[in-house]
Amino acid sequence: MSEGSVTIDGEVRGKIGQGFVVLLGIEEEDGAEDIDWLCGKIARMRVFTDEAGLMNKSLADFGGGVLLISQFTLHASTKKGNRPSFTRAAKPKVAIPLYEKFIARLEAELGLAVETGEFGASMQVALINDGPVTITIDSKSRE
Fold first, then answer.
1. What is the 3-state secondary structure (H, E, C) of 27-84?
2. Residue 102: which of 57, 70, 143 has the closest Cα?
3. CA within 20 to 30 Å of 30's CA: 59, 88, 91, 103, which one?
4. Which residues pair with 65 in a beta bridge?
């Protein structure tokens, strides 16, 4: 990703240059072990090009930033009718502590500050995909 930002009430709250925009959806069944696994996977994923033009560098190798956005709508079910259902998405009582743990864990994994939006806020997210490369990672599909 070439750049990304999040704006809330007309104010840019988080902004990065090259790196990852992470849209994080937390569901009711998620726990600390899911956060640990996801942060490790994100920190070590090799998707940045090396000198040979191959996707062979991780975020740490590359030195890019991270913009983390909470996104409960990733768990939308569209199986019935035309109105999405969000019943799989964790309620704030479960999701907020896991979101905060995710930020702290990813910062520890990368050794850099993670830019964020605001949990539950109406946000305008802008990003310019480089490639484009968009990857979905589900902690429930580890094997």
1. ECCCCHHHHHHHHHHHHHCCCEECCCCCEEECHHHHCCEEEEEECHHHHCECCCCCCC
2. 70
3. 59
4. 19
CATH class label, 3-137: alpha beta
Known catalytic residues? 71-73
Q: For residue 37, what pLDDT is reported?
A: 96
DSSP category for residue 134: -
* 36-40 contacts, C-beta under 8 A, 24 or more apart: 36/105, 37/139, 37/142, 38/102, 38/137, 38/139, 39/102, 39/105, 39/106, 39/109, 40/109
Question: For the whole model, what pTM was predicted?
Answer: 0.91
Distance CA 79, CA 70 (A): 23
- 53-71 pLDDT per residue, tens: 899 999 988 888 999 999 9
Amino acid at position 18, single letter: Q
- The angle formed by the CA atoms of residues 74, 75 and 78, to the nearest 5 degrees, is 105
